[in-house]
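Posting here for the record, re: flavin-adenine dinucleotide.
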Amino acid sequence: MDQPPTPSPLRPEPWDAIVIGAGQAGPFLAARLAAAGQRVALIEREHLGGTCVNDGCMPTKTLVASARAAHVARHAAHWGVRIDGAVRVDLKAVKARKDAVVAQSVANLTQWLGSMPTLEVIAGHGRFTAPTVVQVNDRRLAAPRIFVNVGGRPLLPDWPGIDDVPVLTNTTLLELDELPEHLVIAGGSYIGLEFAQIYRRFGSRVTVLESAPRLIAREDPEISRAVRELLEAEGVTFHVGVSDVRVRRAAATGSEVELEFHTPAGPRRVSGTHLLAAVGRRPNTEDLGLEHAGLVTDARGAIPVDDELRTAVDGIWALGDVHGRGAFTHTSYHDHEIVAAKLLDGAARSASDGGEGRAPSVARSIRERIPAYALFVDPPLARIGASEVELRAAGRPFLKGTLPMARVGRARERGETVGAMKVLVEPDSQRILGAALLGIEADEVIHELLLAMHAGLTVQDLQRLVHIHPTVSEQLPTLLGTLVPVTPELAAPPAAPADPAHPTTGRTR
Ligand SMILES: Cc1cc2nc3c(=O)[nH]c(=O)nc-3n(C[C@H](O)[C@H](O)[C@H](O)COP(=O)(O)OP(=O)(O)OC[C@H]3O[C@@H](n4cnc5c(N)ncnc54)[C@H](O)[C@@H]3O)c2cc1C
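Prediction output follows.
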């Protein structure tokens, strides 16, 4: 690429834009800026692609696939298929496959970013030394626009003794190539439950400890109950409402862990060979030199932003998990679209006013985002919009439709009828307010309802659509045919707990 002018010792290297962190927003924003001719420095201290590609979504979904293969093989007789001999999981081969998928993605990203003449990827830890200056290695870079996309890292539980025992995180667990005999998981929320099913299906004993009274406590009670039953049926053990947890090394082996705790059913003791911390994540903001930029974090360590990702300091934006207003890859990626629309497409619109016939770009913002996510247990749980607990707490009347997966022809044909679909509708407008689908293909089927919410389609619009047979989606009109009115009582149930992806307790090592 064109090299920037050699800086004087006093003068930092001038750039048009600096991006700190190559997660799920930074690389794509850097590329958009570079494509617009700007000189962009993209600083990454570990590996391109961040958590999602290296130790989050992508590797865990390869494991979900391997675990499902083992599960199907073990239960092959259910589909009339005989497998003679034991089904064994070769964790080294599972890991090699995971590593190959991750490596391919990182290689693609590296090649793509390397192909841009005005973009330089700089390996190192970026730290502000002034509002417009970032230090990386022995280089000082200055730019009028700085974008922070540094993501987060796992929290450890606040338990007495935790410093004296080996604790795995989602990163280190993914490096194991020997199967844990008994994996104890601290945290019965999204990340913990995915790992619980994966390792149970691989053949480990798995025990989950959750401090809330139920699993995935953000979800409606019957949803969290259904997920618990699904995992219990596969042999995962749960302790919920746990308190006063103490952990220590088991005397016999020195490497195993022993946990003592209280539950509503009385005191309990569990010994495990491995302990995984899955109690939430904390933004990577402590060592960013934010004080030199004039930025202050909130109590969770997040950098506050407005709906267009601007921080309190002009010229600095924060994107992705670091601002605490999204905890997913798709929200981080959307953040880059919001910023690019403002900084690049907005400029293109005024330039093309008066003749080029380009459609005016629409301003984008975090507010346009409909909550949407999935828990990738098998079968998956997919969620959009409001939950029933939230609507009840708001005292808002709604229509509710439910359909067990056992009534879905495609699920019966597949022999996988676990789960149910639930949809919530605004009575006057007949528009979708939210949905929770637990069942085969739920993570794909939900997008029809998500599109309906996005486009403001009504129940009747969806019911007129001719669906393909035999699919799970074809039952959405039937689901919508079960709607009945719900009028929340005045004494509303307690509001859903805070976003479990961003707990306020726990700490990092
Ligand atoms: C086990 C697990 C499974 C998950 N599964 C899913 C899923 O299925 N679907 C989903 O949507 N989300 C999932 N997530 C969440 C998802 O991974 C994150 O929401 C997403 O990666 C956030 O992206 P980000 O852009 O904010 O930052 P990140 O992806 O965390 O990237 C931040 C980058 O910044 C770098 N960095 C940090 N500080 C500095 C610094 N000072 N200087 C230079 N570089 C720095 C880091 O090395 C990292 O590469 C999962 C997370 C985990 C842990």
